[in-house]
Design brief:
Elements lengths: L1 H26 L4 H51 L5 H23 L6 H30 L1
Helix pairs in contact: 1-2, 3-4
């Protein structure tokens, strides 16, 4: 089940980003763009799901479903940017941080120090702190300046 969750996590990340853009579109009075994003997603599911399942089986279908989430995010993100709202930098930065943590976790998974689970856990925590620490400090500083 671990590999399934890893694949689904990709789609969930784009769902999280899309939720922010969807809220901005609703608040700006453009709910039709949420419907357009859903339409694009449904059409792509109708095409991508059968093709990926036919070619690569269940794993392909899961990957296809995860990647379809990007299409909905992209449609809504483009519209949000056309409204003059910024956020590409933050979204790209957070996405890079997520991928960096995933790469570090994958590297730690394949690096086997001979049953030293505490060492692996400590290194994973250190990697997370190195990646997310500066983002957390930036968020705290930004929140203090705003108030």
């Amino acid at each position: 089940a671990g590999w399934i969750m890893q694949i689904l996590a990709i789609g969930m990340w784009f769902q999280a980003l899309e939720t922010i853009n969807g809220s901005a579109l609703l608040a700006s009075g453009f709910p039709k763009w949420l419907a357009i994003g859903n339409l694009v997603k449904i059409l792509l599911i109708a095409v991508v799901l059968p093709l990926t399942y036919w070619r690569w089986g269940s794993a392909g279908a899961l990957i296809g479903m995860s990647l379809v989430e990007f299409s909905k995010y992209f449609v809504e993100a483009v519209r949000v940017r056309r409204l003059g709202l910024r956020g590409w930098g933050i979204e790209l930065g957070l996405t890079a941080a997520v991928f960096l943590c995933a790469a570090a976790a994958l590297a730690l998974h394949f690096w086997s120090p001979g049953g030293q689970a505490v060492l692996k856990l400590s290194l994973a925590a250190g990697c997370g702190l190195i990646v997310w620490g500066p983002l957390l400090l930036w968020a705290v500083r930004t929140a203090r300046i705003s108030t």
